[in-house]
Design goal:
Layout: H1 4-19, H2 23-38, H3 43-56, H4 63-71, H5 78-83, H6 91-105, H7 114-126
Length: about 130
């Protein structure tokens, strides 16, 4: 799965290319993010919309951004993930990593070898 917040950065890049930075870009990106999150295969709605707008406006730029999203679209089924109650953002994972590292490996007076630290992390994750 691709992290939703990370993928949304690419949607905003597309919007900025199509409309230029500003309110119109923000509105389109917001609408696309909402469709992406709430509709089945939402990425399949974002990509054609961006391609049509770029074509209509005579823009060829940022094909790279579209290619990134298209190539990874099978890992961006956010509506399906949410239906299964899976997390689509990275916040929970990032906080968990911070807690595991800070609370387990950075305590006062602790010193770890790479293999010892890895073992502790594995035990924490299993627990």
């Amino acid at each position: 799965m691709i992290d939703y917040d990370h993928a949304c950065q690419y949607v905003q890049r597309l919007a900025d290319v199509i409309f230029g930075p500003g309110p119109e870009s923000q509105r389109w990106a917001k609408r696309m993010r909402e469709q992406w999150k709430s509709r089945a295969n939402g990425v399949a709605r974002v990509l054609p919309s961006s391609a049509a707008l770029r074509h209509h406006r005579g823009l060829g730029g940022q094909a790279k951004v579209s290619a990134y999203l298209y190539k990874r679209s099978r890992w961006m089924r956010f509506q399906s993930y949410r239906r299964h109650l899976w997390l689509i953002g990275s916040e929970t994972t990032e906080v968990a990593c911070k807690i595991v590292f800070a609370q387990r490996l950075k305590r006062s007076g602790m010193s770890w070898t790479i293999s010892g630290g890895q073992g502790i992390l594995e035990l924490c994750v299993i627990w």
